[in-house]
């Protein structure tokens, strides 16, 4: 590889690519990434001049990164259609609206300044999964590039087309007062206009663009951001609070009393609301999500089925696509709406719209609607250290142990394991709906542990103690990032 080209192999993640700009990747490295992606798109589409939608988020360096990426794509023969300043879902939408062959969105989502990255996809509505990322990494690092005559053009006013697509058909009757928080990220250009467009009274919080992120990173899992939204909800006597991440594909929700609602519970409320109109539907949720879906009386009454699947936005997106599910919900706040509600990809603003529909349909406040769900005791997501080169093997051994415990009917807090799910690590459930999860983290040297019980806080803790005991016995697991 040319000495001037810097590109850290570790930047190729499971479903996107992220680097610290200049430290781990430089301009020439980005151009090579463009060449790699262009080559890959040509292989998969079997076209000499595939059309690629490109957009960028509002960071000080995103435009120069985008131009370096485009240079690489054009050198392989790609025809670039640049939609300008974008959210990731706007770029995904553009692929459908303009009937293009692929997408490349320059964003590091909610990561701190200094980070950059690219979210990309070829099949409409889907982003790269681990196999495509592996292929892209191989083509890029080994410089197996094709060349061709590409071109580029700017698509004017695409922001308005995207906004109008979400507004039309989504009008609400109630005048909901909504706090819309964007953490000074790119969603500030979009979310307030769209939610006003459907009929909300919008109170903006940090919606002006400021790429220094003066208060906190735009991340709906960031406690600082959630506390700011909570205060604004209480100060303004609002019906609902929404917090959007840096590239607009996730949303966090705060109820009318200023309480954070976990995304898996929001997903269940939306699923219930949709199930009355769309009977016999399928929903996909990730293995970190509440066990309430599988036994929910409203979903069962409407003959709806819930599938628990691998954590990670590209995994859930693909499963929604292959199962032709109506929607998918991930604990981290990525929600996916399939036809007729959306195009299958994750769009935080569309998710917020569905929460507005939920409030519009029911003559109740958000906290009352939430209180109708059965109470559950759930741990936060806990991540004990485990080396990258050992974590998958450790999890495989634990899968075997848990299966043996189930087969031998060994009791944990007076309960036998009734079901073992191994699509992503091991999730084991009990008759009362309690469950525990152990999986390997997809992006850092750690395992992921979650437990939940609808019965008692003590049972939640007993299941955690059981898991922790298994982990300590391996001798390969270190400190937790947080622990109950």
Q: How would you describe this protein?
A:
There is one protein chain. The protein is α/β, with parallel strands linked by helices and 484 residues long. The protein has 15 helices and 20 strands. It has helices spanning 27-45, 62-75, 88-97, 130-141, 158-167, 191-198, 223-236, 263-275, 292-295, 297-301, 313-323, 348-361, 366-371, 388-407, 457-474; strands at residues 17-20, 51-56, 79-85, 102-106, 115-121, 151-154, 177-181, 201-205, 240-244, 251-254, 260-261, 282-286, 305-309, 327-329, 335-337, 377-378, 417-421, 426-430, 435-440, 447-453. The strands form 4 sheets. Strands 1-5-4-2-3-6 form a 6-stranded mixed sheet, sandwiched between helices. The protein has a 5-stranded mixed sheet with strand order 8-7-9-10-11, with helices on both faces. The protein has a 5-stranded antiparallel sheet with strand order 16-20-19-18-17, covered by helices on one side. Helix 1 (27-45) packs across helix 2 (62-75), helix 1 (27-45) crosses helix 4 and helix 8 (263-275) packs across helix 12 (348-361).
């Amino acid at each position: 590889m040319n000495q001037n080209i810097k590109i850290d192999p570790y930047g190729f993640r499971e479903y996107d690519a992220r680097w610290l700009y200049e430290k781990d990747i430089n301009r020439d490295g980005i151009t090579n990434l463009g060449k790699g992606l262009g080559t890959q798109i040509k292989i998969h589409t079997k076209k000499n001049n595939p059309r690629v939608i490109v957009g960028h988020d509002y960071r000080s360096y995103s435009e120069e990164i985008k131009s370096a990426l485009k240079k690489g794509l054009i050198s392989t023969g790609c025809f670039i259609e640049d939609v300008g300043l974008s959210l990731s879902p706007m770029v995904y939408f553009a692929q459908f609206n303009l009937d293009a062959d692929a997408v490349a969105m320059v964003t590091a989502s909610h990561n701190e300044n200094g980070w950059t990255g690219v979210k990309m996809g070829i099949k409409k509505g889907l982003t790269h999964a681990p196999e495509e990322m592996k292929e892209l990494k191989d083509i890029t690092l080994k410089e197996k590039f094709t060349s061709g005559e590409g071109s580029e053009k700017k698509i004017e006013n695409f922001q308005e087309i995207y906004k109008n697509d979400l507004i039309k058909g989504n009008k609400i009757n109630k005048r909901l007062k909504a706090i819309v928080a964007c953490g000074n990220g790119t969603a500030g250009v979009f979310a307030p206009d769209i939610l006003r467009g459907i009929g909300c009274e919008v109170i903006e919080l940090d919606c002006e663009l400021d790429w220094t992120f003066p208060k906190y990173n735009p991340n709906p899992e960031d406690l600082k951001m959630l506390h700011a939204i909570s205060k604004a909800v209480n100060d303004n006597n609002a019906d609902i609070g929404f917090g959007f991440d840096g590239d607009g594909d996730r949303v966090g929700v705060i109820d009318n009393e200023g309480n954070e609602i976990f995304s898996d519970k929001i997903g269940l409320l939306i699923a219930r609301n949709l199930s009355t109109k769309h009977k016999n539907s399928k929903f996909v949720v990730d293995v970190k999500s509440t066990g309430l879906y599988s036994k929910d009386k409203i979903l069962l009454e409407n003959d709806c089925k819930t599938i628990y699947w691998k954590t990670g936005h590209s995994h859930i997106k693909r499963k929604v696509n292959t199962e032709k599910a109506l929607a998918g919900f991930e604990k981290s706040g990525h929600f996916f709406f399939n036809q007729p509600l959306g195009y299958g990809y994750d769009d935080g603003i569309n998710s917020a719209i569905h929460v507005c529909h939920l409030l519009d349909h029911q003559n109740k406040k958000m906290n009352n609607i939430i209180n109708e769900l059965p109470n559950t005791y759930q741990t936060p997501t806990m991540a004990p250290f485990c080396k990258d080169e050992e974590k998958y093997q450790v999890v495989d051994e634990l899968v075997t142990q848990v299966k043996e415990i189930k087969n031998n009917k060994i009791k944990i807090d007076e309960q036998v394991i009734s079901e073992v799910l191994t699509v992503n690590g091991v999730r084991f459930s009990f008759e009362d709906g309690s469950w525990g999860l152990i999986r390997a983290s997809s992006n850092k040297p750690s395992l992921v542990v979650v437990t939940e019980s609808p019965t008692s806080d003590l049972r939640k803790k007993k299941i955690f103690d059981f898991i922790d005991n298994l982990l300590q016995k391996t001798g390969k697991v270190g400190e937790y990032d947080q622990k109950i």
